[in-house]
Amino acid sequence: MERRLVRAALSETCSVYPDMPDRLDALGSLAGKLEDIRRANVVHHLELMEAAKAQGVQVICFGELFPAPYFALGTDPLWLALAETVEGKTVGEVREAARR
Questions:
Q1: SS (H, E, C) 8-40
Q2: Domain range list for the chain
Q3: Model pTM?
Q4: What residue ranges of the chain have pLDDT lower than 70?
Q5: 19 partner at 20 to 30 Å CA-CA among 30, 38, 70, 84?
Q6: What single DSSP character describes residue 75?
Q7: Closest by alpha carbon to 17, among 56, 85, 59, 66?
């Protein structure tokens, strides 16, 4: 039986958006910037994907909320606007990058 090695990588959800407030009571200031936050984090993860590919990684797993700061511990409705369907921008961008 032939053995096959599959190289995998995992990422941790960490927002790279540069203007994240450092206080919870200031999160409301991000209301008009959600697309900028999503974009910064998606670009970062696509760069991680390319770096992983260069290291021979075949499977990469991103955190469940990688396009945003990890907000699942709270109930602020602000973050609901980042929800997407499987046909949304984020899945499309990752799908396209995976095909390259």
A1: EEECCCCCCCCCCCCCHHHHHHHHHHHHHHHHH
A2: 8-99
A3: 0.87
A4: none
A5: 84
A6: -
A7: 66
